[in-house]
UniProtKB/TrEMBL annotation:
<dbReference type="InterPro" id="IPR003593">
    <property type="entry name" value="AAA+_ATPase"/>
</dbReference>
<dbReference type="InterPro" id="IPR025944">
    <property type="entry name" value="Sigma_54_int_dom_CS"/>
</dbReference>
<dbReference type="InterPro" id="IPR002197">
    <property type="entry name" value="HTH_Fis"/>
</dbReference>
<dbReference type="Pfam" id="PF00158">
    <property type="entry name" value="Sigma54_activat"/>
</dbReference>
<protein>
    <submittedName>
        <fullName>Response regulator</fullName>
    </submittedName>
</protein>
<dbReference type="GO" id="GO:0000160">
    <property type="term" value="P:phosphorelay signal transduction system"/>
</dbReference>
<dbReference type="Pfam" id="PF25601">
    <property type="entry name" value="AAA_lid_14"/>
</dbReference>
<dbReference type="InterPro" id="IPR027417">
    <property type="entry name" value="P-loop_NTPase"/>
</dbReference>
<dbReference type="InterPro" id="IPR009057">
    <property type="entry name" value="Homeodomain-like_sf"/>
</dbReference>
<dbReference type="GO" id="GO:0005524">
    <property type="term" value="F:ATP binding"/>
</dbReference>
<feature type="domain" description="Sigma-54 factor interaction">
    <location>
        <begin position="139"/>
        <end position="365"/>
    </location>
</feature>
<dbReference type="InterPro" id="IPR011006">
    <property type="entry name" value="CheY-like_superfamily"/>
</dbReference>
<dbReference type="InterPro" id="IPR058031">
    <property type="entry name" value="AAA_lid_NorR"/>
</dbReference>
<dbReference type="Pfam" id="PF02954">
    <property type="entry name" value="HTH_8"/>
</dbReference>
<keyword id="KW-0804">Transcription</keyword>
<dbReference type="GO" id="GO:0043565">
    <property type="term" value="F:sequence-specific DNA binding"/>
</dbReference>
<dbReference type="Pfam" id="PF00072">
    <property type="entry name" value="Response_reg"/>
</dbReference>
Length: 477
């Protein structure tokens, strides 16, 4: 079997020779061209596993080749060589369809890593098994919007360009990012998802870049950061709009230079990660109001992927419901009663698929014999035909036999504070208010914790924790 063939396009003889020798040592066949015209002639004669082109050539721009290869040789990845500090040129090339880029002076280890990734795309048999199936199993739906989304994901997986995923909360941004990773040449490497809004600002640099032993008080061991953990794979920055401006500067440098410096270290270390960012906010508007750096936006927003909200693909509801119930209750473990699908179609789902999962999980807890009825959904404001479906939980307080628990339930709520008055002990006052509200919810639901948690808008686990903290117990039978 012949070796994969690479086309190198560069007008500098010394650099062209260095690239040829490096690729030949990797066991690859190499053809060279010094101009756009020569490259076009070779592309018309032979198939290539990768095209590597300089951006500036005597008779044109490498960007012209990028566009032509993207259109006429779709199965051939093309990478560009950019001058040091020309990040804008790299971004333009990636937007035009380039697979990846390397900067001058060329770091041979980076070049080899990029070539190996490109060869996996050119030879599907060499790709990891995970990328063959693709992790799209949870992106359920056959609507036109979902079919177009899966097509986009398959196309984006062939590139190394940063991707910005836009979509409302709960629409599946992380699932889309995982699907891109699973179908890419990086599928065999780590996928690391980071919620940028959940990291305290004081810890951000240590979490992203790691630290050396003794770098600060408490740094008893050396630790890698998110970039090192995702090395060779994909780093997803979820809710990236929540990053503080100081961290945005450091992140921009790490993305541009592909190097990070641990806290306490004196030298930078190379990292090879593909960045996928996601947010439910409008990043362009964040740039306008000054809360997000324009240069970082430019680096992250090379390719945009927008996820449709659930209300715009209601045709997918039956498939989504079946998939969610199969995951929650097993195949055949739950089914829908009359009118349930109509009730779901009449609901706006501001929380999208995540909210649908929560609604079905809650309804399954209320359902008798695994049959979910309309009343089990507790969808406020949903419409079934012309009638509003607003199920109400039982409102009659439950009488409880006398005892210590009953005394707790019948305890009076804390007296309201006079205008401008302050409680003498805020924690105790708030605990009394919380205790009274939880007891009222439990009484309304006959101490059904699942229903009470739903009324209060918290999880059953949170309710159980609060009951334990406030010493609330179910009444003795």
């Amino acid at each position: 079997m012949s070796s994969p063939r690479i086309l190198v396009v560069d007008d500098e003889p010394d650099l062209r020779e260095l690239l040829e020798i490096t690729l030949l040592k990797m066991g690859l066949d190499v053809d060279s061209a010094a101009t756009v015209r020569e490259a076009r002639a070779l592309l018309g004669q032979k198939p290539y596993a990768l095209v590597l082109t300089d951006m500036r050539l005597p008779d044109g721009l490498g960007l012209e080749l990028v566009r032509e290869v993207a259109v006429h040789h779709k199965s051939t990845p093309i990478a560009v060589i950019t001058a040091y500090g020309s990040a804008e040129n790299a971004v333009v090339a990636l937007k035009a369809g380039a697979f990846d880029y390397v900067s001058k002076p060329v770091v041979l280890d980076d070049l080899r890593a990029m070539v190996r990734a490109a060869l996996k795309l050119s030879d599907p048999a060499a790709a990891p098994a995970a990328s063959q199936a693709g992790d799209t199993s949870r992106l359920v739906g056959q609507s036109p919007a979902m079919q177009a989304l899966r097509t986009q994901i398959a196309r984006l997986a062939r590139s190394q360009a940063p991707i910005a995923i836009n979509g409302e909360s709960g629409s599946g941004k992380e699932l889309a990012a995982r699907a891109i990773h699973a179908q890419s040449a990086r599928a065999g490497k780590p996928f690391v998802a980071v919620n940028c809004g959940a990291i305290p600002e004081a810890l951000m640099e240590a979490e992203f870049f790691g630290y050396r032993k003794g770098a600060f008080t408490g740094a008893n061991d050396e630790r890698d950061g998110f970039f090192q953990a995702a090395n060779g794979g994909t780093l997803m920055l979820d809710e990236v709009a929540d990053l503080p401006l100081a961290m945005q500067v450091k992140l921009l440098r790490a993305i541009q230079e592909r190097r990070v410096r641990k806290i306490g270290a004196t030298v930078e270390e190379p990292v090879d990660v593909r960045i996928i960012s996601a947010t439910h906010k409008d990043l362009a508007r964040c740039v306008e109001n000054g809360s997000f750096r324009q240069d970082l936006f430019y680096r992250l927003n090379v390719i945009e992927l927008t996820l449709p909200p659930l209300r715009e693909r209601l045709d997918d509801l039956p498939l989504l419901v079946d998939a969610i119930l199969a995951r929650l209750a097993g195949p055949g473990g739950a089914r829908l009663g009359p009118g349930v699908l109509d009730a779901l179609r009449g609901y706006a789902f501001p929380g999208n698929v995540r909210e649908l999962e929560n609604v079905l999980e809650r309804a399954l807890a209320f359902a008798d014999d695994g049959v979910i009825e309309v009343g089990d959904l507790l969808l406020k404001g949903a419409k079934l035909g012309d009638a509003a479906v607003v199920p109400q939980p039982p409102q009659t307080p439950v009488s409880v036999a006398p005892g210590p628990t009953a005394a707790l339930e019948q305890a009076a709520p804390p007296p309201p504070l006079a205008h401008d008055a302050l409680p003498s002990n805020l924690p105790d006052y708030l605990s009394q208010v919380e205790r009274d509200i939880i007891l009222r919810a439990l009484n309304q639901t006959q101490f059904n914790r699942t229903q009470a948690a739903s009324l209060l808008g918290i999880s059953v686990r949170q309710l159980r924790y609060q009951m334990q903290k406030l010493d609330i117990h179910a009444p003795e039978p």
